[in-house]
Amino acid sequence: MIGALIGPLTSLVGTWMESKAEVQRSKQTVAKAEAEARATVMVSAATSEAGWERIMAEASKDSWKDEAYTILFIVIIAMCFIPPLQPFVERGFAALETTPEWFRVCMYCSIGASFGLRGITKFRGKK
Predict the structure, then answer these.
(1) Does the pTM exceed 0.85?
(2) Going residue by residue through the chain (127 aa), what tens digit of pLDDT does each one get?
(3) Which residues contact 65 (CB under 8 A, 6 or more apart)?
(4) Which of 80, 87, 110, 112 counts the highest number of beta carbons within 10 A?
């Protein structure tokens, strides 16, 4: 009699264990698919960003805007080390603080576009 119960009980336990194993395999398949999808999105984003930067570099290769900003910053920095010119630098920055916020944002965007968005993120501590 015990022998007659052991066969069906073993079959029932085996079926239960197989279903647990199938659930685990399904979870692993889903996790793998999610990881692959995230990797695909990251590659696509990196490719798009690199393409955009290449386009912007090509568009600005004949532009003097980068050099103009660089020269302006060098002049401002040099003025900071010349005592008679320091008040002009201080008043200039004080005047910039009184400009409307939209103007400052446009100025930052212009400078950021000139030097590249990656340059701004480095200064802000991102990426």
Answers:
(1) no
(2) 666 667 666 777 778 788 888 888 888 888 888 888 888 888 777 777 667 667 666 766 667 777 888 899 999 999 999 999 999 999 999 999 999 999 998 888 888 777 766 555 555 555 4
(3) 114
(4) 112
Rg (CA), the chain: 32
Q: Would you state the structure tokens that stand for residue 75, as one six-digit string?
A: 């002049």
| Contacts for 53 with CB less than 8 Å, ≥ 6 apart | 116, 118
Which residue in the block uniquely carries the two structure tokens 């939209």? 102
Enumerate residues 6+ apart whose C-beta is below 8 A from 119: 112
The rounded distance, in Å, linking the Cα atoms of 25 and 127 is 36
On the CB side of 115, how many CA atoms lie within 13 Å of its CA?
A: 15
Could you write out the three-class secondary structure of 37-102? HHHHHHHHHHHHHHHHHHHHHHHCCCCCHHHHHHHHHHHHHHHHCCHHHHHHHHHHHHHHHCCCHH
Q: Which amino acid is at 23?
A: V
